[in-house]
Amino acid sequence: MTDDRMALIEQIQKSTDGDFLRSVAEHTLHRLMDFEVEALIGAARHERTDTRTTYRNGSRPRQLDTRLGTLDLKIPKLRQGSYFPAFLEPRKTAEKALTAVIQEAWIQGVSTRKVDDLVQALGMTGISKSQVSALCQEIDERVQSFLERPLAGDWPYLWLDATYLKVRQGGRIVSIAAIIATGVNQDGRREILGLGLGQSEAAIFWIEFLRGLVRRGLKGVKLVISDAHEGLKAAISQVLCATWQRCRVHFLRSLLCHVPKGQQTVVSAAVRQVFVQPDRKNAGEVWRHVADQLRARFPKVAALLDDAEHDVLAYMDYPEAHRTKLHSTNPLERLNKEVERRTDVVGIFPNEESVRTLVGAILLEQNDDWQLQHRYLTLETMAGIAAADEPAITPLPSAKAA
Question: How far apart are CA 157 and CA 302, in angstroms?
Fold first, then answer.
């Protein structure tokens, strides 16, 4: 222990103030590797023991990028077998993607001071075009394979949501929509189905996106849950022949924009009475009753209620056990927040390809996590949907009757 302290003190004395933490980190990691090697070979350095299985055989250099800067490490080599430190596990796909996007912005000359600060904060050094190309190619292949994979089986429920990102195009900064599609299959498993990028949310954009999902095998869709994006409702009817569920959270938020702030709590409470009803019939009756009550004081609110009844209450035609997850796009909130958190770090993307790389990598990681979790909806309740769709079998007439 005394030797370790002397070595650490010597490292610190040799370093300047700016290198202090970096020197401490390097020394600590080297000691961790020593401990791991001792446990692996059954003996400390220069120790003679019957439990020793092999000997050290020099070291190999390895750099580790950290927030303290680039650490120069020496990984011990063994005469027999191999050793690799546990703390140097490969970075996650999304972390690689984030690094690649920042590097690409740097190299293409579109970096700002913010990107410069990010590069330094990540401790990256020696950035080159070849490094970026190799890193991007590795990620792009995985992301492309994931986003273009075939979709097997039926997908009764489909959620669509959009987030907006800034991209440089032709010397200008434009906002593009990143559309994320998630679905639940007949087994009750939730998966991320696709990612679409576009500068417009017109009907043609949605039609092409949905057709792309259908070409990959999307079928059996009964309910599509989304916000009221322009042109989406027509695209759903044209491509999927499915029912549209308008996100009731976003609808209520839009509705209250037409109510004075002092009356919003009362109006919100009145509308929410609809959502506690046991079935679609009762919910519709309460909905129309609330609209009539508000018509005199808030005609705009009443008109919106009249127009949106069937779209906002569509989820009540489905099993009660599913309704809490069907009435809005809230199940995507955590995913959207993670996408926003990662993309906010970049700020302005150099091109659409970099958006697809980073967002696609985030979606790939999230989808892998979902496959390790319990079913999103139970098999029993999903079987009820399939049974409800099966037509009644009419017995064939007997030969005697014929």
Answer: 30
**Alpha carbons 358 and 147: distance in angstroms, whole number:** 12
Q: How far apart are CA 195 and CA 180, in angstroms?
A: 5
Pair type for strands 223-226 and 157-169: parallel
Domain count for the chain: 3
What is the DSSP-derived secondary structure letter of residue 17?
Answer: G
State the number of CA atoms in the 13 A half-sphere of 135 facing the CB.
Answer: 25
Claim to verify: residue 344 and residue 314 sit in the same structural domain: no
Contact 135, 93 (CB under 8 A): no
Q: Tens of pLDDT along 29-80?
A: 888 888 889 989 999 888 888 888 999 999 989 888 776 678 889 999 998 8
> Token match 């087994």: residue?
187
8 Å CB contact between 165 and 349: yes
Domain presence at residue 154: yes
Whole-angstrom Cα Rg for the chain:
29
* pTM score of the predicted model: 0.71
Are 82 and 94 found together in one domain? no
